[in-house]
Amino acid sequence: MPSEVYNLAFTAFILSVIISPFYIRFSRLKQFGQQVRLDGPQRHFRKAGTPTMGGVVILFSFLLPLLFGVEKTPFLILAVAVTFSSAFLGFFDDFRKVVRRTSLGLKAREKLFGQFVFSLVFYIVLLFYGHSTVVDIPFSTMRIDFGLTYPLLIFIMIIATSNAVNLTDGIDGLAGGTSIIAFLAFLFLASLQGLQDMVYFCGTMIGAIFGFLVFNLHPAKVFMGDVGSLSLGAALAAAAILTKAEFYLIIVGGVFILETLSVILQVISFKLTGKRVLLMAPLHHHFEMKGWSEWQVVTGFWALGFIFAVVGLLDFSRLLG
């Protein structure tokens, strides 16, 4: 693994640790506080008013080392562009809710349209550079050529992962820690293939999130907001696409998948039967309602995320061996 990645990750970590306290003070001054669900766990009520939109700290700490520390390849630029495109949507969603004090952020169709445009541009650039539309199927020797439907796959991956990370961001440190584990997996996947630019991309993101976690762990002094969760999800999708591990995102991001499925299952069950299968969705809230502490839920989900990441890595390495 290139030694530069350690310098990039460390620089991003230090930047994030330095910038976060200033951002927290600024947010408190401007009253950029978190709104809390009234139907959520009661112990979450004390989190109301905690500074949010801290994802801007992650993004700045991530971008600066890449701008000045490495060679800018087309795929690295593309991955950063996808990340910041979703960050743009997340920022405006947060801005409307937090700064403008409106009850709703961006409408679903506005987000979908923006993500569709970004996905289409992403595909066109990939096509120009001869990116393969053939996708490996995990735990098998099968390969599927998506051909002209590949942009639809990209669109689904970006939307699904962005929203999945967003759903997971409901307990202090949960989304950040789980994202670090997933990015570590893709860092190793990129390293196994000699994709140095993606190693830099994942490594720098890991450093930036780690620095943010210093202030986001329970009890959190700042939340990442949609600007953070949507951009991290898009960055993970970009990493999976550019390392040709598209369907391995389902395994590596298994915690995000479970969180999303829990919401879907809860909604379907309530619509069809009028009953809820979980005490509360997403899944992490179910365990909170059962009496688990935040630390128990977070560390449990981190451990599960680590298992998913190892399984994904082991199976992908089989393809290269």
Taking Cα atoms only, what radius of gyration do you get, to the nearest Å? 19 Å
Low confidence ranges: none
Class by alpha and beta content: mainly alpha
Multimerization status = single chain
Instruction: Give the beta-strand count.
Output: 2
- How are helices and strands ordered from N to C? HHHHEEHHHHHHHH
Summed up, the helix count is 12
Whole-number total of structural domains:
1
Structure notes:
With 321 residues, the protein is mainly alpha-helical. Helix content is 70%, strand content 2%. A two-stranded antiparallel sheet has the order 1-2. β1 and β2 (143-145) form a beta hairpin. α2 packs across α8 and α6 (174-192) packs parallel to α12. The longest helix has 27 residues, at 4-30.
Give a brief description.
The protein has 321 residues and is an all-alpha fold.
How are the secondary structure elements laid out?
Elements: H1 4-30, H2 55-69, H3 74-99, H4 108-128, E1 134-136, E2 143-145, H5 150-168, H6 174-192, H7 196-216, H8 225-242, H9 248-252, H10 254-273, H11 283-289, H12 294-320
Antiparallel strand pairs: 1-2
Which tags fit this structure?
12 helices, two-stranded antiparallel ribbon, globular, 321 residues, single chain, mainly alpha
